[in-house]
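Thread: "does anyone have the structure for this chain?"

Original post by V.I.:
We have the sequence but no experimental structure in hand. Need at least a predicted one for the grant figures.
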Amino acid sequence: MKCWRQPVPSLRMLQKFIAPLLASLLLGSSLFAPMALASTAPPPVVSLDSTKKIHPLLQYAAKADPNKVVRVIVQKTDFNALGGGGLLGALFGPNVPGLQVTEDFTVIPASLATLPASSLPALAALSNVRYVSPDAAVSFNPGLLPLVTNLLLNLLGGLLGGGGSSSPPSPAPIAATSSHVGAGNLLTTYPIDTGASNAWSGQTGSGVGVAVIDSGFDLSHPDLAGRSIAVNLNNKASSTADGYGHGTHVAGIINGQSAGQQYLGIAPDATLIGVKVADDSGAAYESDLLRGLQWVDANRLRYRIRVVNLSVSTNVPSSYATSPIDAAVEHLWHDGVTVVAAAGNYGSDQDAVWYAPGNDPLAITVGCLDDNQTVSPGDDSLCPISSRGVTEDGFAKPDLVAPGRKIVSALSSGANGKPAVLAGQFPDRITSDGRHIRMSGTSMSAPMVSSALALILQRHPQLTPNQLKQILVQSAQAYPAQADRAGTLNITAALQASAHPPANSTQIPVAVGGTPPPSGAVTLLWDGSRWSTTYWDGSRWSNAYWDGSRWSGSMEWDGSRWTSAYWDGSRWSSTYWDGSRWSNAPWESDNNFD
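Reply from O.Q.:
Generated one for you, tokens below.
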């Protein structure tokens, strides 16, 4: 019987005290608005309008904190509608006081801008503006040490982070590898659990490029040297080095090869293209992530990128229809790049899967499986912190699960003469060789699937993202403690499958009213075994789950989600924007259930 350590209560309490304290220390800056997070006054009540082309959080800011300067991502009706760069600002200037456009994106029609919150309604009202959303922070598995860093970034209104060059230098191509791999000396179970070791006699991922958008990469690490390249898109970092440690760990799961072959990635001969978007503390914003997706799209042919791994989550819930990150994800998908996203570590919270990019219906969203460090599936179970549920748009997530607990992989040597942040946080999880570290979470599960795709693509390079997703979902196997539709990654079965009709061509939001969708509409995902009481019994299908609180609108688009009950001070002030979402809390169970 497995025992799980519960999240440390004192950590949440610490965050409650740290947020107001830091706010009171920093409120002298002109970046802050009159509404202090440390204030004891009740938050103002603001009426929100779901018909406006502006995120509810920004609607609240415009009314409750009008003088606050905010950074936003402006999605446009098309690339040429508003001009570019300074011209965009010039066009907007007379109608939108205080607007400054700092960057135009090319992967989707969007621009990065700052303006006073009071000017947000005028910006959103323009006919050539599609939607305005906050340039919010994103999480690369933050832990206790980045708590203060991430909180400070939030308190500074997001104005001091991100901002990497939109025209970064291109990394040089690397030589192909033909190294031999084997499973005889493995000290980890996941290559065997997933079926990867059975595939290595024929498929090792050779010739397939897997991009990883993350916190950086230790290209000098012996497990990664010679088969990986990297580019830095964060202007607060001086190199591609991984000062945080998250990206290097993810990379090792994909194509790591230790000297004695004790630690091998799922696709040891795949080419890893590292795209650094976070600074050396692990801090990044949606604009940084968008810039990374843009670089991957622009360079996909040069580096034969067929897969992009996103072990990252935004911190503001959204519909995939309005999220700029999801828009870029779908652009890559239709350009032939399969997008794999971590589900997140919010467990079964009501909004657990409401965050991009894991909320996108096209993306392959991966949850965390605990294999109990054995090769037998009989003791497998879902990691309790693994996000699962239904997105704001009605899509069930995750799509499948993969090993994610106690995953040993490459440890970054750090940056600028300092050890990696994760090494300082978790010294007890570093292996005896000093080169590897044990981590847990859906961030570790996603690269299992990304590298599995490299194996499949080496064998079937003609497959499209839709076909690849269908193969993975259909071949996923059940496990004893399975609680929802998402089976576990089965590479052996996936390699034996042939191309089938795309899964996403018929994927639709979950129906309501107790009746499944019309026969045949979603047979690839929702055949008999999926529609039976295994998943859709009373707790998931009856009114107890699907009444107004989930679907009819009394929760999602009015009352609880669009009015002050959800987006008032509890989301704008320290209750929401302190550690509970920006830093450690979503991951605290991740960092303590080891």
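V.I.: this helps a lot. The radius of gyration is 23 Å.
O.Q.: and The first strand starts at residue 69 and ends at 76.
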